[in-house]
């Protein structure tokens, strides 16, 4: 119900029935051990659903975080571990609590609006002076932006080029890319998340990791196969960063299908491939919730289609092709908490139906999960995603098909000298 309403609002059409205004509330009853979650209908002042979350912990606030730090520093197990390090006198131990618990949103009522724009051309007469350009340094206080998304254009080299050997003329077009970018801080790491919108109508999803390197102590002159020494007595372990991008498609409407596409050689044929160099693509519609893997030997890609919408130029179904970056999937042992808490990391591509509450590929309580939460558990029954080109509706939300793909970044650290 929400997506049709937002589309009508955007197009300034007659609005359909407004979706129910609901809010998710998490609370403790008595002690912190009694943790619950309810969804409240704000208009009817009634509870829509409730969930017993005993065994999990909610977000930690600053007061609780301080108590947690002190508890760790007075725990016998931690004190014994500190003794083993044989730290020099005066060394200070800092505790870094992991404050992340259930996933959620901070404020869903806010909307981002562009309020300023950099001019396309600035002449020398109107450019700022050196004093004006550096005046921000003299400010006593800087403006604060609680929600910030960077929107900018960058030069991307050549968009299109051709040299005509007969006319001796060459034509070249410059490529510009619009980038929407934000940064998320998670403990020591900063994740730069950017969407690149190109003039060729493609969308590239980029995640970069920066911040402070995760390290561990190591004996001087010792080498290990699972990490690299980055400073005397300091080792950076090899590790993986895993990302799952969820896509709720709206391609000329809600009625979406998903298919795989592969490039395969054509058999020798006097009419279609007499010299044996032809190849074709073959595709198959994904009929049920499932996971798919990449296959570089067939150049396998994935497509979201709207079979009710036809491209007037090609006379084929409109669609977008999804090309996950080729990467090795999760290396952790299946019995490890890494594996049990990240079900999405076993495959590159997943297709599921929309269901309320199934929002995050690793479940709602990733860092507290004992396993059995997430996208793989949801699709064990292989629920049908409906016939091609149709959508399935429920009373609360549009059951358009959803897809997601996993991306893995491998970190093998290579220190460089700056001398």
In a nutshell, what does this entry contain?
One of its GO terms (molecular function) is quinone binding. The chain has 419 residues and is mostly beta strands.
Features of this protein?
419 residues, 4-stranded antiparallel sheet, 20 strands
Radius of gyration: 27 Å
- Work out the number of β strands: 20
Overall morphology = globular
Alpha plus pi helix count: 6
In which order are the strands of the major sheet placed? 4-5-6-7
Helix-residue proportion: 10-25%
Amino-to-carboxy terminus distance: 61 Å
Characterize the main sheet.
Answer: 4 strands, antiparallel
Structural class: mainly beta
Task: Report the uncertain regions.
Answer: 113-119, 386-401
Query: What oligomerization state is this entry in?
Result: single chain
Describe the structure.
By secondary structure, the chain is mainly beta. The protein folds into four domains: 1-52, Nuclear Transport Factor 2, Chain: A (Roll); 62-120, no CATH class; 137-235, no CATH class; 246-383 and 401-411, no CATH class. Helices cover 11% and strands 37% of the residues. The protein has six helices and 20 strands. The chain has a four-stranded antiparallel β-sheet, with no helix packed on it. β1 (22-29) and β2 form a beta hairpin. The chain is globular. Residues 113-119 and 386-401 have low confidence and may be disordered.
């Amino acid at each position: 119900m929400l997506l049709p309403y937002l589309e009508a609002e955007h197009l300034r059409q007659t609005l359909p029935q407004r979706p129910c205004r609901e809010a998710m509330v998490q609370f403790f009853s008595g002690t912190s051990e009694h943790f619950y979650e309810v969804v409240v209908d704000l208009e009817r002042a009634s509870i829509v659903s409730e969930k017993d979350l005993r065994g999990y912990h909610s977000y930690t606030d600053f007061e609780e975080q301080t108590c947690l730090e002190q508890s760790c520093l007075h725990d016998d197990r931690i004190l014994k571990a500190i003794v083993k390090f044989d730290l020099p006198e005066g060394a200070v131990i800092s505790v870094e609590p992991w404050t992340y618990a259930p996933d959620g949103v901070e404020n869903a009522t806010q909307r981002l609006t562009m309020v300023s724009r950099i001019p396309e051309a600035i002449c020398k007469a109107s450019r700022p002076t050196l004093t004006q350009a550096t005046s921000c340094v003299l400010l006593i206080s800087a403006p604060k932006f609680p929600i910030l998304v960077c929107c900018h254009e960058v030069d991307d080299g050549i968009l299109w080029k051709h040299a005509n050997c007969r006319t001796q003329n060459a034509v070249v077009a410059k490529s510009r890319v619009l980038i929407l970018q934000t940064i998320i801080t998670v403990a020591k790491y900063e994740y730069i998340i950017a969407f690149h919108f190109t003039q060729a109508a493609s969308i590239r999803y980029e995640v970069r990791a920066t911040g402070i390197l995760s390290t561990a102590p190591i004996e001087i002159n010792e080498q290990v196969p699972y990490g690299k020494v980055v400073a005397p007595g300091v080792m950076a372990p090899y590790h993986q960063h895993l990302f799952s991008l969820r896509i709720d498609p709206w391609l000329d409407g809600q009625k979406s299908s998903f298919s795989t596409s592969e490039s395969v050689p054509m058999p020798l044929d006097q009419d279609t491939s007499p010299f044996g160099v032809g190849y074709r693509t073959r595709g198959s519609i994904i009929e049920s919730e499932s996971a798919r893997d990449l296959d570089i030997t067939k150049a396998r890609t994935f497509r979201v289609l709207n079979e009710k919408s036809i491209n007037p130029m090609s006379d084929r179904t409109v669609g977008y092709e999804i090309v996950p970056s080729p990467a090795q999937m999760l290396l952790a042992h299946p019995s490890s908490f890494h594996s049990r808490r990240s079900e999405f990391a076993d495959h590159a591509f997943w297709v599921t139906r929309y269901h309320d509450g199934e929002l995050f590929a690793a479940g709602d309580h990733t860092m507290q999960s004992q396993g059995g939460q997430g996208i793989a558990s949801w699709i064990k029954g292989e629920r049908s995603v409906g016939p091609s080109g149709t959508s399935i509706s429920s009373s609360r939300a549009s059951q358009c098909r959803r897809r997601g793909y996993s991306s893995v970044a491998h970190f093998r650290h290579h220190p460089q000298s700056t001398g």
